[in-house]
Prior knowledge:
Elements: E1 6-11, E2 15-16, H1 30-40, E3 46-51, E4 54-59, H2 61-70, E5 74-79, H3 86-95, H4 99-102, H5 105-118, H6 121-124, H7 127-134, H8 138-150, H9 153-161, H10 167-183, H11 187-190, H12 193-205, H13 211-216, H14 219-222, H15 225-233, H16 239-247, H17 256-276, H18 283-312
Parallel strand pairs: 2-4, 3-5
Antiparallel strand pairs: 1-5, 3-4
Helix pairs in contact: 1-2, 3-5, 5-8, 7-8, 8-10, 10-12, 17-18
Amino acid sequence: MEERMYYELVPIKLIEPNSLNPRKDYTKNTKEIQDRIKEHGWETAITCYQHNGKYVILSGHRRWHAGAELGETQIPVFVVPRPETEIEELERLASSQGGQIDWSAYEWARYTFDLWNLKGGSQGCSYKELAMKLGVSERLIYKRLHVFRYYKHTEIETQLKESTLTISILSEAAHWIDKVVKKYPSIVDEINLDSIKSAMILKAERKCFSSVHLRVDKFYEVASLKEITNFILDNKLTLKKAYELSVGEEVATGKSQGSKLRQTINMLQQRQDEIYQIDAENVKDAKELLDMLDDLEIQLNSKLEEVNAVALV
């Protein structure tokens, strides 16, 4: 018998959050949601499917939580057919109204990782396929998966949710660490790898470098093992200053044009960081912010290519 969609009032005790939902904290904006419910009632039903006598949420986790906190005994539910697979369920969670706008960078990374795994990982799902599915670039898919697998989640989850760190800078820091370890394998004897990762996370939070700085960095190439170790352990020492201390002069640009390019890169990176701090209030605003970030990424890549060209002259 084909399942149908219908609307009904459901006892709140029969409703449960979706275990696949990347967001586990449903308290954000609870007071505002409660005020709207008290003033206007339940204008929008939450979306659930039935399973083992329960109603599992696909959309509306925060509204359900706010209602529970208010002491509501029943709430309106739009009941839809149960997803046939976990992959379908994950995809429907992401496409549910408001889901894509509300999720933090960490929640999107977790969602991307879970979906990638369910689709077979590297053996069954390419970055291109996943990028097309989620409507983002392959590069962003790679960065999300890279960061999610590389760091301890307890050290990055809060920062990504609060936007004090970005996926981009964590991914570039991971690459930088790997390059350092490849050049100086013995560094992990002096500072174990987990400690190096933790130190770089803290330095990223303290703005000791940007993702662009890490991408064009030459410090690890010219510095001694001792100098690199000092840089990692000094949580206030910037990458630029570390280079200057190592070579005894300011960062070389080769020509004044190189200096101007780096200034432009710094400006573009700063603008990226500013946009990451903005909370979208609706779908239109979110799309505009994402478009702006895409444009900045294109400009940054173009300027980086110019820097490399200047360095070869």
